[in-house]
Specification:
Elements (H helix, E strand, L loop, with lengths): L2 H20 L3 H29 L6 H45 L6
Length: 111
């Protein structure tokens, strides 16, 4: 086979292909129209969903996690401070008793 023959065969094949494309199959045309309609419908749904997504409140999960951790830290600090206050109250009672005992042992004399 010569290159000239191959070139003529390729041209003839392309010619047949282009000619058959000009005659559109009614079934394919119907399917194409259905697909275009479906694409338009889906694009409309996407637009509606995009609008809904604009109204979705922001996600506060990270902030909530941080707030819970901070609340736990503060609760631990409050418990520690309550222990400190209880210890200081005990110390105060002990010092007041010691002072009261001292005053009974060494009364102040009025002149």
């Amino acid at each position: 086979m010569t290159p000239r023959f191959l070139a003529l065969g390729a041209i003839a094949g392309l010619s047949l292909t282009f000619n058959s494309c000009n005659k559109e199959d009614p079934e394919l045309v119907r399917k194409r129209d259905e697909q275009r309609t479906e694409i338009k419908r889906l694009e409309g749904e996407i637009s509606v969903l995009d609008e809904k997504l604009k109204d979705v409140p922001p996600d506060h999960t990270q902030e909530l996690t941080e707030a819970k951790a901070q609340a736990q830290t503060q609760a631990t600090e409050v418990a520690r401070l309550e222990k400190d206050v209880a210890a200081l109250e005990d110390q105060k009672r002990t010092l007041e008793k010691t002072f009261s005992d001292y005053r009974h042992k060494y009364p102040v004399k009025n002149n």
